[in-house]
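User: Study the shape:
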Amino acid sequence: MKRKHKVYSRPKRPFDKARIEEEAEIKKEFGLKNKREIWRADAKIKSMREKAKKLIGAGKEEQNALFDRLKKMGLEVNSIGDVLALDKRDYLKRRLQTVIAEKGLAPTVKAARQYIVHKKVMVDGKVVDSPSYIVLVSKEDKITLKKKKVKKTKETEESKE
């Protein structure tokens, strides 16, 4: 079994007050479990920026391939400058947890997280139990909540007859 590597890096200055306050605000806004989820989003954005920087001298086809991939993810990108201007908040808005709360399927972001973890949410007919699942634009309208099952008891069966 291969060892799984970290998909984030810790901040260089662990006790930077401005960063700590900003992360606390983001954590509350998006209903995140811990700051590691913020760092993971930051790492994803950083890798997207690095890919964009490498494509500055490349042809239009390669650049458009990157832009199309990011547009499918739901990020509004039309140029290299747009990719370089992306922020971790843009990425966090595409998480399943946030999308469910925005659509109104859950009253709060934390409730949305609980629905997902308890396997009450389906995307395109499949149960997704990861709040960090990135929702593609094509699957955004295919998000549903599972229907509640009604237990059959002797009383309900007798009342039907």
Observations:
- The domain at 95-147 is CATH 3.10.290.10 (Structural Genomics Hypothetical 15.5 Kd Protein In mrcA-pckA Intergenic Region; Chain A).
- The first strand starts at residue 121 and ends at 123.
